[in-house]
Amino acid sequence: MDFAISPRMQTILDLARTFVDNEVVPLEGELLHGDPDTLDKAVAAAQDKARQTGLWAPNHPEELGGLGLTMLEHGLLSEVLGRSPLGHLVFGAQAPDAGNIEILHEHATPEQRDRFLVPLVAGQIRSCFSMTEPETAGSNPVLLETTAHKDGDDYVINGQKWFTSSADGAAFAIVMAVTDPDAPPHQRSSMVIVPTDTPGFELIRNVSVMGHEGRGWASHGEVSYQSCRVPQANLLGPEGAGFTIAQKRLGPGRIHHCMRWLGIASRSFDLLCQRANSRVIDLDGSTLADRQVVQHWVAESAAAIEGARLMTLHAAWQIDQVGSSAARDSIAAIKFTVANVMLDVVDKAIQVHGALGVTDDTILSYFLRHERAARIYDGADEVHKTSLGRRLLRSRREQPVG
User: Fold this and answer.
1) What's 182's DSSP letter?
2) For 168-204, what is each residue's pLDDT tens digit?
């Protein structure tokens, strides 16, 4: 294992950290308290500055205008960008666009690349990924009820989706729909590109999460597809390959998520320490930092963050070396480990801040509201633990006891 950082990558990380601290973090006031339109203008201006620094779309291949980073390198950068909720957006590396760009780059036809991929990488448009359903299927791709049946040269799509994140304002959706209900479970569904101005595509609402209804890039849309007709030329990849493509998308996506969560944990840890050192709690001038329980929280949090970070970098290194499929055990382990470390550090930081911690006067309550779902999306903790535990037990059945 070699986690050495090249001089080029170190320069990129240093530039990104300075940019996030100086250009992105100051925008959080508008995110928490300001006017959404004012925030959009400020983000657009920051995105222009990111382009000028040469750091735009860093996670994408060089032929698409990115930096051509390895999975390990992108993980390191994602940790830096994750320190602010706006970091990935400002750098053109936000979900779900990042994952959509990956699968478009691998599976899009030349016509699809020109119409959808090129402007998406350039930040001229946004996209969404429409798979999760509100009823039986949830996010289980083999239980989908949304259908896409052929009619002449078209697909006609019918069904209901929700948590189609960033649908509000997106130019197109990549939709998972059943194209052959009689095929084996993992070959029933396909991915189809649906421009959001297609008749029959309706954004019903932005789902309210913990009392806050996001908009634009931060939204979670409920979407209806009612006789939504698109050309069969909009099929992404082979018919029946929806499950396979989705799984390939999830491996790198979980690295992105975990390193972003570590950025959140690191930022929260910094705020915890700052508050502990500055909060006077007695007439003798002692602070929260003088209390043993807080010292224990700091030590435990620092160790947990570093352990989770090394686990995630190791998984990223494995993907670079042997691919996502061979690294699936490491990917499953980091998904539930890092999510819980991040949420625990955020919770401790809120506790140290006292009443201030649950207000929107700091970024901590935003982290808690928007990241509690980390233990649910892309597979609930329990699913990953069950599948990983089953594989580990199976691999040891034939081993001699000693």
Assistant:
1) T
2) 999 999 999 999 999 999 999 999 999 999 999 999 9
231 Cβ neighbours under 8 A, 6+ residues apart: 153, 154, 155
Sign of CA dihedral 352, 357, 361, 362: positive
CATH code: domain of residue 210: 2.40.110.10
- CB-based contacts of 99, cutoff 8 Å, min separation 6: 129, 249, 252, 253, 256
152 Rama class: left (phi>0) / alpha (psi -120 to 50) / beta: left
Residue 228 and residue 157 in contact, taking contact as beta carbons nearer than 8 Å? yes
CA atoms within 13 A on the CB side of 31: 24
Structure confidence by residue, pLDDT tens digits, 261-277: 999 999 999 999 999 99
DSSP assignments along 195-216, one per residue: ETTSTTEEEEEEPEETTEE--G
pLDDT at 121 over 70: yes
Contacts with 228 (C-beta within 8 Å, 6 or more apart), sequence order: 156, 157, 158, 194, 198, 199, 200, 201
Dihedral angle of Cα 130, 212, 262, 127, to the nearest 10 degrees? 30
What residue type is 360 in one-letter code? D
pTM: 0.91
Q: Does 323 lie in the same domain as 370? A: yes
Among 108, 140, 165, the domain boundary falls at: 108
